[in-house]
């Protein structure tokens, strides 16, 4: 059993900052990577940022220079620091964990999401 839990969402004014946390726990053999996705009302879920086991990061163009993803390996926790927030960043933010099994199979786990609302 694997649990993925996000926290840190809330209401913030445009230009403000929030930090989201994603904690992965349970029967983990090895984490391949952890990423953040978001889904705004009426829109499809989209990629935001990700970090791999070796620390490589990737960002959506829309958040580059404003969001920073970081990872604390010992805690199986990933953070998403969001600065200079815009109204268009309003969405439910989901954490996704790619986990490796002992047989080198990849499994996908999602958290329930955390709401981020940016008021203009």
Question: What does the model show?
Answer:
There is one protein chain. This protein has 120 residues and is mainly β. 0% of the residues lie in helices and 60% in strands. The protein is built from no helices and 11 strands. The protein has strands at residues 2-7, 10-13, 18-26, 30-39, 46-52, 57-59, 67-72, 77-82, 91-100, 106-110, 114-119. The strands form 2 sheets. Strands 2, 4, 5, 6, 9, 10 and 11 form a 7-stranded mixed beta sheet that branches. It has a 4-stranded antiparallel beta sheet with strand order 1-3-8-7, with no helix packed on it. It is elongated. It starts with a strand and ends with a strand. The model has no long low-confidence stretch (mean pLDDT 95).
Helix and strand arrangement:
Layout: E1 2-7, E2 10-13, E3 18-26, E4 30-39, E5 46-52, E6 57-59, E7 67-72, E8 77-82, E9 91-100, E10 106-110, E11 114-119
Parallel strand pairs: 2-11
Antiparallel strand pairs: 1-3, 3-8, 4-5, 4-9, 5-6, 7-8, 9-10, 9-11
Q: Judging from the principal axes of the Cα atoms, what is the shape? A: elongated
Instruction: Count the DSSP helices.
Output: 0
**Helical residue percent?**
under 10%
Structural class of the secondary elements?
mainly beta
Radius of gyration from the alpha-carbon trace, in angstroms = 14 Å
- Compressed to H and E, one letter per element, the order equals EEEEEEEEEEE
- Ends apart, CA distance between termini: 40 Å
- What's the story with the biggest beta sheet? 7 strands, mixed
The count of strands amounts to: 11
Give the integer mean of the pLDDT values: 95
Given as residue ranges, the uncertain stretches (5+ residues, pLDDT < 50) are none
Strand content: over 45%
């Amino acid at each position: 059993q694997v649990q993925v839990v996000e926290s840190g969402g809330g209401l913030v004014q445009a230009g403000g900052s929030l930090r989201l946390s994603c904690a992965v726990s349970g029967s983990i053999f090895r984490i391949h990577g952890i990423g953040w996705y978001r889904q705004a009302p009426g829109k499809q879920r989209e990629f935001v940022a990700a970090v791999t086991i070796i620390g490589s990061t990737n960002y959506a163009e829309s958040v580059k220079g404003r969001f920073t993803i970081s990872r604390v390996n010992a805690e199986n926790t990933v953070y998403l620091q969001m600065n200079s927030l815009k109204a268009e960043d309003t969405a439910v933010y989901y954490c996704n964990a790619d986990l490796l099994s002992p047989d080198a199979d990849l499994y996908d786990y999602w958290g329930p999401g955390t709401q981020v609302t940016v008021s203009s």
